[in-house]
Design a protein that fits this description.
It contains 33 helices and 23 strands. The protein is an alpha+beta fold.
């Protein structure tokens, strides 16, 4: 293996040999782009240096540091950096670097740029821009050797180590070093072939300044800023900047060629020398852009992921199942202006909502629908309705329900109000009958199991729509009617306060069942200590092996028997259930065991919330004057009946999860057969196929390479920090027109009450901890998050609506909630004291943890 390569030779070399930056530059050189000549000191050279002395031992220790132990990670990184800076460079390697520099300089003193090129750099999802060192205007072989060594050492700088840890990249990366002729720049800077701030693909951004481009990249100067169309038309820019119109045009043209060559929007570093020649010193993917469906016209899309409360991409199998589920809602969704089919881009699913945005008749209904589930999406829909890119079109009122049909719907709800327990029991019986048909064969061939899944998939995916809906509808409508009867005397927010401590909600019942399991463990001293002192992944392994103490083993097994079908991001069929991987359950139990005192007992809180809600019903309905006694009595009746039925709101989703779990069991058994045939690596890989592909794999087709490619994309997209609720076809993620003064935050008042406490920002609930009294701040939540509500004092989310899962459960647990707060997870920091007013929909900032010391 060559230790030193000419840059032109490095084309086609593995990334783990030359690093991301050199690989890109070599590819650009081979494609004919103007790249300064140079050479690459490969990762083989770095590994030679690291292998000496205590380097291997330090690296081995670092790779074994537990996740989250930042102190130990930083200590070992410092020692590795010191080692690289002091260990002798092998004589043969030193000679090779000097000779390569002399060839580049052709016997004359020449200034070079010495730049790091790590294997963990310029990845599609993490650019590592600025994390590793660059040295400019380096002259002489001695200075080149010193700069190369410092580039190696920059791999273990504090900032680079933290960046890798945050992005979950390799703990043991390697680094190559590029040495290139330095461009004697008259003007240099950065070109973005798409707007990195707005995401708009139809705009090009150029930042430029006189001299070397490093000043622009590092932020040392305020550059000339240009915003142009992809055709080179200037939309914004200084009239007396360092770039002429012709040079701007040249940059736009080369940027478009680079984007076409690499197949994605590019972040390009460039320089014009004194002779007016353009040189390119880097091109990499713009990693912050969110993927969007391609379209030749302006289209608007609403995120299915946000609607479902998940911030991860769907697996391919999960995407195919969600499409089948949504087809059962197609007529209803189409009447609101949604597309019939769902579009998939790298696991992010979208409805095309252009029809609803452009229709004055449909737009208000679409906005109300999406806001009820994922505020502030509805305000974005209304805002787009005023956008010139989406001119209004006439539409009829075919989405209106005929009066006769409306009467029949009312008539069907009356028995549910009169006999709510019987109506609910009927829904449960119907669900149990349907779910029993999804169990599948205990003994069967893989072919028979797959045929079974294919035959019942549609029924499973549409069980929510196929269950009797009258009782569920009556639960929601009863509260709405009561609000209308009380209008003028009672606000809608006050009506919402009576829906705390709702019975028969399977998600709330799940949370309480987990609390009871924790309470049983607390009574056993040995089990209590073991659960607190042992890592959740180790506990999960012991549980699956059946080797835990009886108090833990039995309690967890009972919980999983009832609720093991659930998981975080559970609407994605491809996600492992808690039965498959109970580690999150043990993490949640550990969290609950730290909650002490009667005020932390959720069963007590739930009972108190129910009693308070009943008293609230009486208090609110007494506000009506005696002359309206009949209205007061009817409102009281409807509110009480609505409470008895509202728990059904979460029941169909729970039934879907039970159906999903049954079908997953069958598919994983099919996957085991395909693994034995050596056409998949592991049984779970079937979740990165669709059912038609599973059948092909069961036949003779090898899908290992396909799955590896899809899994890589899924893992990359899973690291995206957030999902925009609305995105346009040009890549823009529209922001709400500002209505605040930039201080405190506002959102949707989703669950009444006011709490002051320390914030805990959480991006993934699996393994997360909420100390009693802390306020949970998240981008979004689904039922897999709700056990955290047992110890949380309040909830703040970036999306969510009045009927979304998170807010429904927050109300039932009696904790305040403000949802639909854009930027909540970035504007609020863990440890900061905030006040959440779930009645007013406000978050008021207080001190940070540091301020309070």
């Amino acid at each position: 293996m060559k230790v030193i390569l000419e840059l032109a030779e490095a084309g086609g070399s593995p990334r783990d040999l030359v690093g991301g930056k050199a690989a890109n530059l070599a590819e650009m050189t081979s494609a004919g782009f103007p790249v300064p000549e140079g050479f690459c000191v490969t990762t083989a050279a770095y590994r030679q240096v690291l292998s000496d002395g205590e380097g291997p031992r330090l690296l081995g220790e670092l790779t074994r540091v537990p996740s989250g132990d930042e102190g130990r990670l930083a200590e070992l990184a410092d020692r590795l950096r010191a080692h690289v800076l002091t260990v002798p460079i092998p004589a043969r390697l030193e000679t090779g670097i000097v000779e390569a520099y002399e060839r580049l300089s052709r016997g004359e003193p020449v200034a070079v740029a010495v730049r790091s090129s790590s294997t963990a750099e310029d990845l599609p999802d993490a650019s590592f821009a600025g994390q590793y060192d660059t040295f400019l205007d380096v002259q002489g072989s001695g200075e080149v050797l010193s700069a190369v060594r410092r580039c190696w050492a920059s791999l273990w700088s504090e900032r680079a180590t933290r960046y890798r840890a945050a992005h979950g990249t390799d703990r043991g990366p390697a680094i190559a070093v590029i040495v290139q002729r330095l461009v004697d720049a008259e003007c240099a800077g950065v070109l973005y072939t798409a707007n990195p701030v707005s995401g708009k693909r139809s705009e090009i951004i150029v930042d430029a300044a006189p001299g070397l481009g490093e000043a622009v990249v590092s932020g040392a100067v305020t550059p000339d800023h240009y915003r142009l169309t992809v055709d080179g038309e200037s939309l914004e820019g200084p009239g007396d900047g360092c770039l002429t119109p012709s040079r701007l045009g040249e940059l736009v043209a080369v940027g478009r060629h680079l984007e076409k060559h690499f197949g994605a929007p590019q972040d390009v570093e460039w320089a014009f020398n004194g002779e007016g020649e353009l040189w390119l010193t880097q091109s990499r993917h713009i990693t912050t852009l969110f993927p969007v469906p391609e379209s030749d016209e302006s289209r608007a899309y609403w995120s299915v992921n946000v609607y479902q409360g998940i911030s991860r991409p769907f697996t391919p199998m999960g995407a195919s199942m969600i499409r089948e589920r949504q087809r059962g809602m197609a007529a209803y969704m189409s009447a609101l202006g949604f597309s019939d089919e769902i579009t998939d881009v790298d696991g992010w699913l979208y409805w095309d909502i252009t029809d609803g945005v452009r229709s004055p008749a449909k737009r208000p209904k679409m906005a109300a629908f999406v806001d009820s589930l994922a505020a502030p999406s509805g305000r974005l829909v209304e805002q787009l309705g005023r956008d010139r890119r989406f001119p209004s079109v006439a539409s009829g009122s075919e989405e209106d329900v005929p009066p006769k049909k409306r009467r029949r719907r009312w008539e069907r709800m009356i028995p549910a109000w009169l006999w709510p327990d019987q109506a609910r029991a009927k829904v449960v019986r119907d669900a149990e009958r349907r779910i029993a048909a999804f169990t599948g064969p205990a003994e069967a061939t893989a072919e028979e199991r797959l045929s079974f899944v294919e035959s019942v998939r549609r029924d499973v995916c549409r069980i929510e729509a196929n269950l009797p809906r009258d009782a569920n509808t009556a639960g929601g409508t009863g509260g709405q009617l009561a609000g209308q009867l009380l209008r003028g005397h009672v606000s809608d927010a006050e009506v919402a306060t009576v829906f705390r401590g709702i019975p028969h909600n399977p998600t709330t019942e799940m949370d309480l069942a987990l609390w009871r399991a924790a309470a049983a463990i607390r009574r056993d001293d040995e089990a209590f200590r073991l659960l607190l002192e042992t890592a959740p992944d180790e506990l999960a392994a012991k549980h699956l092996a059946g080797t835990l103490p009886e108090a833990i083993q039995h309690g967890v097994a009972a919980f999983l028997t009832e609720y093991g079908c659930r998981a975080t991001s559970e609407i994605d069929f491809g996600v492992p259930r808690w039965t498959d991987d109970p580690e999150p359950v043990f993490a949640m139990l550990s969290n609950l065991l730290r909650a002490e005192g009667e005020e932390q007992d959720p069963e007590t809180r739930f009972e108190q919330a129910a009693a308070a809600a009943e008293a609230r019903i009486v208090e609110l309905t007494r506000r009506l004057p005696v002359t309206k006694l009949h209205r007061a009595l009817l409102a009281r009746f409807l509110l009480r009946r609505s409470r008895r039925l509202r728990g059904l709101r979460e029941f169909p989703k729970f039934c879907l999860m039970r159906g999903f779990a049954a079908l997953r069991t069958q598919l994983l058994l099919v996957g085991e057969e395909i693994v034995r045939a050596e056409r998949l690596e592991r049984a779970g890989d079937v979740m990165f196929l669709d059912l038609a592909e599973v059948r092909e794999a069961l036949g003779s087709r090898d899908f290992r390479a396909t799955v590896a490619r899809r899994r890589e994309i899924w893992e990359r997209e899973s690291r995206r920090p957030r999902v925009p609720s609305v995105v346009l076809s040009d890549g823009t993620a529209p922001a709400l027109e500002s209505t605040s003064d930039g201080g405190d935050l506002t959102g949707l008042a989703a669950a009444a009450g006011a709490v002051t406490g320390r914030a805990r920002v959480i991006h993934d609930p699996d393994g997360a901890r909420i100390e009693p009294g802390e306020i949970l701040v998240a981008a979004t939540t689904d039922p897999g998050w709700t056990p955290l509500f047992l110890t949380a004092a309040a909830l703040v989310t970036e999306t969510g609506g009045m009927i979304s899962h998170g807010t429904t459960v927050a109300r039932e647990h009696g904790i305040p909630a403000v949802v639909g707060v854009p930027g909540a997870t970035t504007r609020i920091v863990t440890g900061q004291v905030i006040t959440v007013d779930g009645s007013a929909g406000t978050i008021t900032f207080g001190e940070t943890a540091e301020d309070s010391r």
